[in-house]
Amino acid sequence: MAIKIDIDRHVGLKIRTKKGVERHKSGDKARDIDDFLNLVSDAWEDYQNRFAVPRATWVPVKYMRPKEFIESPDGPSDVILFKLNSRKRFNSTSDGQRRPRTPSVREEIADPDDSENTLTVSTLKRENMVEFQIWSVHSKKANQVALQFEAFMQAYDWYFTSKGINRVWFEQRTEDRVVETGATEWSVRTLEYLVITELIYKEVDRKLQLITVRHDSGSKLKSTTINAKTGLLEHSIDRGTT
Question: pTM for this structure?
Answer without folding.
Answer: 0.65
